Amino acid sequence: MIFYQGRSNYGQNLQEAYFYLEQSCNAQRSLGCYEAGIIAAHSKEKKANAPKLLDRSCSSGDLRGCRNLATLYYNGIGIAKNQYVAMKLFKTNCNKGDTSSCQKFYYALGKAYEKSKNLVGAKLQYQQGCSYGDKSSCEKLKKWGVQSSLKSQEQSPKQDQRKQASSLHSSKTELQSP
């Protein structure tokens, strides 16, 4: 993490960070799998390793690993694009209490409904996404003249019922999706 966060005497060194994080992953440390997966996803040379690393992180119960694996599937990064698998991962993660996955799930579902010209369905999904604090969902509703209220993540549904285990470590990097 010292190399990843740039706290070494030489500043940030992602090659060194990746090497040690991958070793950590091989030693069954989910944080190593997650961070190595994020580095790999942003690297041309290592992009193909990202799904495997994030899958290992996800399999160990790291919600961020699952969310970012879903993002890889959704966007086809380092793996064949598969929005069905992505949506299933986002929904499963949402059900486990990951607000960011809920935001991505409902926004992506809203986009799918909108693309199929089912605007009533799209509106319902965007409203749900907005209730979880997704600004993009709220903006879609606003464009359509629908009143919505953007709630902060602290106020979003189910948030008070859980605290994400992954909040112990806040990564500098998160993959962008839907």
Structure commentary:
This protein is mainly alpha-helical and 178 residues long. Helices cover 58% and strands 0% of the residues. The chain is built from nine helices and no strands. The chain has helices at 2-5, 14-26, 30-41, 50-59, 63-75, 83-95, 99-115, 119-131, 135-143. Helix 2 runs antiparallel to helix 3 (30-41), helix 3 runs antiparallel to helix 4 (50-59) and helix 3 runs parallel beside helix 5. The radius of gyration is 17 Å and the shape is elongated.
In short:
By secondary structure, this protein is mainly alpha-helical.
Quantity of strands, as a count? 0
Number of helices: 9
Instruction: Calculate the mean pLDDT score and round it.
Output: 81
Helical proportion, percent range: 55-70%
Order of helices and strands: HHHHHHHHH
Distance between the termini: 28 Å
Low-confidence stretches: 152-172
Strand-pairing-aware structural class: mainly alpha
* Overall geometry: elongated
Rounded radius of gyration (Å): 17 Å
Name the quaternary structure. Answer: single chain
